[in-house]
Design goal:
3 domains, mainly alpha, single chain, two-stranded antiparallel sheet, 4 helices, about 5% strand, about 160 residues
């Protein structure tokens, strides 16, 4: 039995087909909206003339910089704390030259890095890089020792001695 139900294309459909089409349309819409950001964007004009794309996390759907629900005193506090964090993360103006050729030089650079991190004058990300470089220098020194040991064991083996 055919009913005269019309969809967007003005075709005749059965009730079951109409229900199926409606379910498919709703599923496609839901899948499309699930991939999009659920949180609205700020949309306020920026200083440079663009549109702010930060998430609108405040009740007026604006970002913390453009909202009207936050007092100037709170914003000033945010700015001061941000400036303080920026100052803490500043790098020292002078560094000791890295010397990984000796144990004393490697130890000195690692101690200096540790002290700078503890004083808040060096970000931990930079300290991690120094640590990885020290590890690489250690591996290089180890490879040199293995080569040197092999050079010493070779003549011993030729004379009939036992290598390690």
């Amino acid at each position: 039995m055919r009913f005269r139900l019309q969809n967007n294309h003005r075709e005749e459909m059965t009730v079951k087909e109409a229900q199926g089409a409606e379910i498919r349309r709703a599923a496609v819409e839901a899948a499309g909206s699930a991939s999009k950001s659920v949180r609205p964007r700020c949309g306020a004009p920026t200083i440079r003339g663009g549109v702010c794309t930060a998430p609108g996390t405040f009740p007026d759907h604006r970002c913390p910089h453009h909202t009207t629900t936050v007092s100037e005193k709170t914003r000033r506090g945010w700015r001061q704390r941000g400036l303080a964090a920026q100052q803490r993360a500043k790098m020292p103006t002078t560094f000791t030259a890295a010397d990984f050729s000796t144990e004393e030089g490697a130890r000195k650079i690692l101690e200096e890095t540790t002290n700078l991190v503890r004083q808040g004058k060096m970000p931990t990300s930079v300290a991690n890089v120094v640590s990885k470089l020290a590890g690489t220098a250690l591996k290089l020194a180890e490879l040199k020792l293995v080569k040197r040991l092999g050079d010493l064991e070779r003549p011993l083996a030729e004379r009939g001695g036992k290598p390690r």
